[in-house]
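STRUCTURE REQUEST FORM
Protein name: Iron-sulfur cluster carrier protein
Source organism: Duncaniella freteri
Requested output: structure tokens
Priority: standard
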Amino acid sequence: MTLYPTLITQALATVRYPGNGKNIVENSMVADDIRIDGDTVSFTLIFDKPTDPFMKSVAKAAEAAIHTHISPQVAVTVHTAARQPAPAAPAPILPGVKNIVGISSGKGGVGKSTVAANLATALAREGYRVGLLDADIFGPSVPKMFGIEDEQLYIHEVDGRQMIIPIERYGVKVLSIGFLVDKDKAVMWRGSMASNALKQLIAEADWGELDYFLIDMPPGTSDIHLTLVQTLGMTGIVVVTTPQEVALADARKGISMFRDEKVNVPILGLVENMAYFTPAPHPDERYYIFGREGGIRLAEHLGVRLLAQIPLVGSIADSGDNGSPIALSDTVTGTAFAHLAHEVIDAVAERNSTLPPTTKVELKH
Ligand SMILES: Nc1ncnc2c1ncn2[C@@H]1O[C@H](COP(=O)(O)OP(=O)(O)OP(=O)(O)O)[C@@H](O)[C@H]1O
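Status: completed
Returned output:
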């Protein structure tokens, strides 16, 4: 009689596991260690738990199956083992944060930080728990927009760890790379120093429980973007553009970076900033000085939502300059940001119900 492994598995496939009625081969309970030596065979049966009540009876049935289907002469040794528990998933870096939304733009100066600051404020006004991280290494402007440029950062202990306390203003928890970087030396901070500083502001800050964690990203594409997608599983990206052709072309490039199959962060939608000019005394008038419908067309072309069209108005710049975002007001422009907040809430909800959570990107260099 010649024994060979398939013969053994065929015999074992006749043994039913009473726990679910399937046979033990189907259940992947026969380990990959079948040993045959002349008329002697040994193998291991694996059970989910070390306390499996069927362990002994299944082992006996396995031995009997070999005697019945192959030969009573075979000397069978059945080992039993419990499955190794899967290694615990690493703790998420921001365990209390539900949604992480990046605010991005293809080029500088299109109002990305203005949109980020006002969106954060508008969400907080609606009662959501909001954090805003200014990761724009090239021009961290969020502290100015919140009037917190001269604030000191403090540290406190959470579960034995020293954590930076975000500064809370208008219901938004804010941190900025600008707090760590001397503005005039920002350029020197490109590269790994900036990446490490950002990781610190994410992982070593006490963000606590947040519904929306917004990140004002640097314009264009940079290694900071890579740091962010590698550090965090981002829920999605809001892209800010202005209507000029050149800005639209850059927005398109920015979107393709996030859509790259290696990065693969969903685009929640487009915000067209400075979409038209409205003179303060005539809030109902709209002048499309940079061209009309560029944002609508780009959104349609790329198959993303146009989340909002924000007018070019002096009060947006003024309120940014004096540290109180226009979204705090009930003006026409303030309301435009409230609408944007609703659109973002919808887009995030839709994304979460249709796509799996974004995983951190493992980039191979
Ligand atoms: N809709 C708007 N109406 C009027 N002024 C605006 C509007 N949006 C932004 N601004 C002004 O334009 C300037 C640039 O805006 P902001 O700093 O938000 O742009 P950005 O895209 O974040 O720039 P960067 O990427 O270079 O930091 C600011 O002075 C801001 O107040």
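Reviewer notes: The chain has ten helices and 13 strands. The chain has a mean pLDDT of 89.
Form closed.
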